[in-house]
Amino acid sequence: LAFRATSQVPEKRRVAPAAAELLGDAETVFVDEGFTPQNNRRGLPADRPLTVVTASLPVAGALAETGTVSVLLLGGRVRSGTLATVDHWTTRMLSGFVIDLAFIGANGISREHGLTTPDPAVGEVKAQAVRAARRVVFAGVHTKFGAVSFCRFAEVGALEAIVTSTLLPAAEAHRYSLLGPQVVRV
């Protein structure tokens, strides 16, 4: 997480608030681990109640002091580095919810292999968040596109929207949109 917090920061700071603009009337939101999804929290409304479900200790800590946001931290084994919870405790707890919107991150996204991450335990938490959510938004920098990791947790067609920067070529963004999601380039 420390490396991600210093890599492509200007691009991530453009992408994250644009993703948060897709909140709509959602009352319950899953915010994934990772630097870009965690930045979505900055765009969450302060003028209405919102419940945020997260496996990320940094997200929970940052939002806990916000008066209008109720934070539900998923239990489980805490991973070093990302400070996010994983394993069966996390997924079992998450399976009991219906979430209006999930902000999901990934190590890679490809048209052929979908959204991927290298860690099976992380992949299962992300997959459960996708299953629990009515709407799913992926926010990520252009270097995530075409990258593939070990564990697939969602297909591109499961996404309502993809939010990335204009560094992803328009033609490539169009190819992703043909699989179903709206692609927003900022």
Automatic annotation (TrEMBL):
Please verify whether the record's keywords include Repressor.
Answer: yes
Q: Which domain of life is it from?
A: Bacteria
Which range is the signal sequence, renumbered to this chain? none
- What UniProt keywords apply to this chain's record, in alphabetical order? Repressor
Annotated DeoR-like transcriptional repressor C-terminal sensor domain ranges read: 8-165
Q: Name one Pfam family in it.
A: DeoRC
**Per its UniProt record, what InterPro entries does this chain match?**
Carb_Metab_HTH_regulators, DeoR-like_C, NagB/RpiA_transferase-like
Against PANTHER family, the record matches this protein to: GLYCEROL-3-PHOSPHATE REGULON REPRESSOR, HTH-TYPE TRANSCRIPTIONAL REGULATOR SRLR-RELATED
**What name goes with this protein?**
Transcriptional regulator
Q: Which organism is it from?
A: Streptomyces griseoflavus Tu4000
